[in-house]
Amino acid sequence: MNDPQKGPVFTDIVLEVFKLGGLLVSEGDHMGEEYGITSARWKVLGALSLAGKPQTVPQIARSMGLTRQAVQRLVDAMREDELLCFQNNPDHKRAKLICLSALGETVFSKLSEKQSGWAMECSTGITKAELETTLSVLKRISESFER
Amino acid sequence: MNDPQKGPVFTDIVLEVFKLGGLLVSEGDHMGEEYGITSARWKVLGALSLAGKPQTVPQIARSMGLTRQAVQRLVDAMREDELLCFQNNPDHKRAKLICLSALGETVFSKLSEKQSGWAMECSTGITKAELETTLSVLKRISESFER
DNA sequence: CTTGTTTTGACAACATGTTGACATAATGAG
DNA sequence: CTCATTATGTCAACATGTTGTCAAAACAAG
Fold this sequence. Notes:
The structure is a homodimer. Chain A is built from six helices and two strands. By secondary structure, chain A is mainly α. Chain A has one domain (31-145): Winged helix-like DNA-binding domain superfamily/Winged helix DNA-binding domain (Arc Repressor Mutant, subunit A, Orthogonal Bundle). The longest helix of chain A has 27 residues, at 6-32. Chains A, B: InterPro entries: HTH_MarR-typ, MarR/SlyA-like, WH-like_DNA-bd_sf, WH_DNA-bd_sf.
C-alpha cells in the first residue's frame, strides 16, 4: 500500500489529466459548435438544468467550482445570445436569478442526447469496472485537495 | 462490456477530469510559488529537461501538445526571468535553440524533489493497482481523440 | 436602529490557452 | 536555379480562467 512506486504513477496521472482535459474541451467545443456553444457555456447550462430552478450567479459559480466573476462573464454573454434570461430576485435587489430560456433548454437537451451517444462510443474497449475505478480514484484525489 | 450504464460513468469521469485539472493547476502554481514559477512554466522546464538537449519553440510545443504561439509567449517571459537562455541555431537562422539556464535547472530539480514527495502523499489511501488502472484508462481515452 | 461583516455586481489587470494573418527563412520539386 | 510549399517568429483578437478592488445591498449582533 505504501509502495514507493506509486509516486511516479501518480505523476503520470497528473500529466494525463492535463492532456485529457485539453482534448475534452476541444471535443466539447466541437460538439457544441453547431449550436453556437462552447464547453464553458455548456457547463453553465448543465448547472442550471441540474439545479432545476433559477439560480444566482454566485450559486452557479459555487456549484461549478469557478469564481463568480468567471461565471458572470459567461452568463452575461449567454444572455446576449438568448440562451439565458434574467429574473428579478424578490429576495435580493442586486442578485438576479438566472434561468434557461426556451432556446437554452432546447440546445441543452439536444447536446445531452449527442453527448450520451458520444460517451457510449468513447467507452468501447473499457470495462465498466475500469471506468468505475477511474472515477473513484479521480474523486478521491479531488477531495484530498478540497479541504 | 457494452453495458449501457457505461455512458453515464464516462460522463462523470469527464466532469471530474475538468474539476481535477483546475485543482491540480492550483496545486502546481502553489508549489512553484516560492520559485516564482507557475504550472505552465514548470511544464516548459519539464519538456526541456526531458529532451536532454536544447530545443526550438515548435519542438517544445509539439512535445507539450500546445501551439507554438502559446509556448513562444511562455519562453519569452521565462527568458526575461533568467530561467531559460537562447542559443543561435546553426541549422536555422530564425529558430533559436532554447535551453535551461543554471537557474532553470536548479529550480526544476528542486521542484521535482518537492513534487515527488507531494505525489507520494497524494497517493496514500489509493492502491498501486487502482492508480495503474486509472492511468491506463485515461491514456486509452486520450488516444482515442488523437487520431 | 446602528454598526460591522458578508455577499454581490462591476471593473480592471493578468495568465494561459486558442485562431488567424503576415513576412521571412528553409526546403524540396522541377 | 527557380518556384511553390512548409516552418518559423511575430502580432493581434478572442475565450476562459484567476486575483484584486470598490461600492452597494443584505444580514447579524448589540
